[in-house]
Specification:
alpha/beta; binds S-adenosylmethionine; Rossmann fold; three-stranded antiparallel sheet; 10 strands
Length: 278
C-alpha cells in the first residue's frame, strides 16, 4: 500500500469516527467538515500516544475509559484567528456601531470576546479604539473581557506576540501604530504595544457555562458556536443575549448559523452576523 493510500484510509476512518463521536459531544459534523484535517491530526497523535492501531480500537477504548472523552473534546477545539478577521465586520463596528455605543455608554464601554483564541479579536477592538476612535472622544474608557476555554490560548494572549500571518487582514496603518517588529527565533514577529494590552482582561471560561455577571455593550462570539449542535447553541446564545445591554451588539462569525427567532435579537446585518439586543 502506498503512503498516499494509507493516508486516505486513515482520513476516511477518522471521518467515520468523527461522525460517530461528535454527536456524543453535542457537536455537529457540518461545522467540522472544513477543518477535519486539523482535528484528525490531533486524534492520530492521541491514538499513537495510547499505542492504539485504529479508530475502531479507539472507540473500544472510549467505551472502557469514559474519561478519555475530554481528550476528544480538546482535539475538537479549532483555534484559527486573525487580527481584523472578516474586515467588513470591523469596518462596520468602527464606522457605526462603536461610535454609537460610545454615545450611549457615558464613560466606560464594556466588551466581551468569548472564545477569544490568542486575543486577536479583543486586541483588534482595543487597537480600533485607541487609534481610530479615542482621538475623537477622549473622555471614554474601554474594558474588554477576553475568555477562552483553553489555558494555553490565554497564555499566548498574555504574551501578545504574533507571526505575520495573524496580521494579514489588519490595515497597514493600524499595524504600524499598534505593533513593534521584533526578532523571533524564526524571523520577525509582531509584539503588541502595551497600551493595546491594557484594556483587555483575560480569563478562562467555557461558553457552555453561565457567563460573567457584568452586562456588556458589545459581545463577539465568532466561529465558536458553529461547532455545537442546535441545543447547545441555543443555550449559549441565551447566556450571551442575557448579558447584553438593551441596544447592545452581538457579533457572530460569518459561518455561524443564524440565531433562532425566539432569541431577542434584531439583525443589523445578517450576512455579517451582526445583531442588536432588543
Ligand atoms: C476558531 S477560534 C475563533 C477565535 C475568534 N473568536 C475569531 O473569530 O477569530 C475558536 C476559539 O474558541 C475556543 N473555544 C472552543 N470551545 C470553547 C468553549 N466551549 N468555550 C470557550 N471557548 C471555546 C477555542 O479554544 C478557540 O480559541
Amino acid at each position: 500500500m502506498t503512503r498516499r493510500e494509507v493516508h486516505r484510509m486513515a482520513s476516511e476512518a477518522c471521518t467515520t469516527f468523527l461522525q460517530w463521536a461528535l454527536p456524543r459531544l453535542n457537536k455537529r459534523w457540518t461545522g467540522f467538515r472544513p477543518v477535519q484535517q486539523q482535528v484528525c491530526r490531533c486524534l492520530i497523535e492521541r491514538l499513537t500516544a495510547l499505542d492504539l492501531r485504529s479508530f475502531d480500537a479507539y472507540r473500544d477504548y472510549l467505551r472502557k475509559h469514559p474519561g478519555e472523552w475530554v481528550e476528544v473534546d480538546a482535539c475538537c477545539r479549532i483555534t484559527i484567528s486573525r487580527f481584523y478577521r472578516d474586515a467588513p465586520v470591523f469596518d462596520r463596528l468602527r464606522a457605526h456601531e462603536l461610535p454609537r455605543m460610545m454615545d450611549r455608554a457615558h464613560g466606560t464601554l464594556r466588551g466581551w470576546s468569548a472564545g477569544a483564541a490568542s486575543g486577536e479579536e479583543a486586541y483588534t477592538l482595543s487597537i480600533l479604539w485607541h487609534e481610530a476612535l479615542l482621538p475623537r472622544q477622549k473622555h471614554h474608557r474601554l474594558r474588554i473581557l477576553a475568555t477562552d476555554a483553553q489555558a494555553h490560548m490565554l497564555k499566548r494572549a498574555t504574551t501578545a506576540v504574533y507571526e505575520g500571518g495573524s496580521l494579514k487582514e489588519l490595515p497597514a496603518p493600524l499595524e504600524k501604530l499598534a505593533f513593534d517588529r521584533v526578532a523571533g527565533p524564526e524571523g520577525l514577529v509582531y509584539s503588541l504595544k502595551r497600551r493595546h494590552r491594557a484594556p483587555v482582561q483575560l480569563a478562562l471560561h467555557d461558553v457552555r457555562t453561565p457567563p460573567p455577571m457584568e452586562p456588556f455593550h458589545l459581545i463577539c462570539c465568532r466561529y465558536v458556536l458553529m461547532y455545537f449542535d442546535a441545543d447547545v447553541r441555543q443555550r449559549c446564545l441565551g447566556y450571551l443575549t442575557d448579558r447584553l445591554l438593551p441596544g447592545g451588539v452581538l457579533v457572530l462569525g460569518k459561518r455561524d448559523p443564524e440565531p433562532p427567532d425566539d432569541i431577542p435579537l434584531q439583525p443589523i446585518d445578517r450576512a455579517l452576523r451582526l445583531y442588536r439586543r432588543m
